[in-house]
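Hey,

Quick one before I head out. I ran the complex with magnesium ion overnight. Inputs first:
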Amino acid sequence: MTLLYGDALEIIESRIAGIAEIERIRLSEAAGRVLAADLIAKTALPPADASAMDGFAFAFTPGVTRYRRMAGRSAAGHPFDGVVPPGHALRILTGAMMPPGTDTVATQESCTVTEDGIEVPASLSLGANRRLCGEDVRAGSVVLTKGTRLTAPALGLAAAAGFGEVTVARRLRVAVFSTGDELVEPGHPLPPGALNDANRPWLMAMLSGWGAEVTDLGILPDRAVSVRDSLAWAGERFDLIVTSGGVSMGDEDHVRHAVATLGGFHFEGLAIKPGKPVSLGWVGGAAFLGLPGNPVAGMITFLMIGRVLADRLSGAVPSREARIPAIAGFSHPRKPGRREWLRARLRTDGDHLVVECHPQQGSAMLSSMVWADGLVEIGEAAGPVAPGDPVTFLSLAEMLR
Ligand code: AMP
Ligand code: MG
């Protein structure tokens, strides 16, 4: 029986382990890396009570709107050296520490400044325009958990919490092969019956975008011995081998035989469209992902399976793409049984999100993949789709990171 997409995700989660090696690196070089340990905040955020606005700080007294102005001020990086007595207000700037004795800030624009004091709005409440020490992060609490990928926002939080260095998993080492005698390196002459190798550039781009260290191992010929030797060699040196082509059931599908000889399979083929022949296994010490040769089938399976696998191997908490509910603006004949992804675009129609599909859904049609800004996902149980039916949209931008 052919496994379902959900079975494949379960297999990845239960059988694939993350890289064990870790390294300590500077935060400035950690973009895209995966935390190998929780980060415990070295400081509270904010580190002290601070003003969120330019204005005047004072101790709030219910019903009192006039405060006597004090000499001096508290500015960012230059705290006020003293105590503000009750009934008094001190000039304060955004980000400055709240001086002892104060708990509330009236913004500059809301105050009337008189000769000897200020008048604050009657509507002001205790603690207005004040950021409390630790209201974002408490000192000693976990700010980022093990497995977090250091995106730009996460880097910002790590820096704010006091980390100049972080412990991360070693970068995932991935080898990429294309297979097929018909393939030619792009830019070289194209003999009759030949095809430019379209797969390695996008595969390498996606893997780099997901934080891996990628090695281009070129095109494997359709020869059992060279496929086996090359895979055996790579199996000793990489965490993951990704191939495209040679995994369907044709005469020249040497990749399957080589993997079966050198390692084994977790699954061979899934109930999905496109990308039915996609296979997951191992070769020596490396995980093995065999993608279908057709570029769009390869791309979609790599986004939907390869990305989860790369996250898992990297020790990252798996990315969960947003599944956006939308309405079909197309009809699509199909029988239940397979999970299907169609190249699509999202548009708004009044209050609705409507999905349009590209008319060419063939698995070698690369221009439709460039046209698309996402994929419509049709579940295994669904029958034909008619205009107006609820469907699920996945954004490509999110998956490509
Ligand atoms: P295969 O799985 O090897 O039978 O390949 C399926 C189809 O994808 C065939 O038409 C191949 O020519 C095509 N194909 C395989 N690899 C590539 C590639 N790297 N670039 C473009 N087309 C490919
Ligand atoms: Mg082939």
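The mean pLDDT is 96.

Talk tomorrow,
K.
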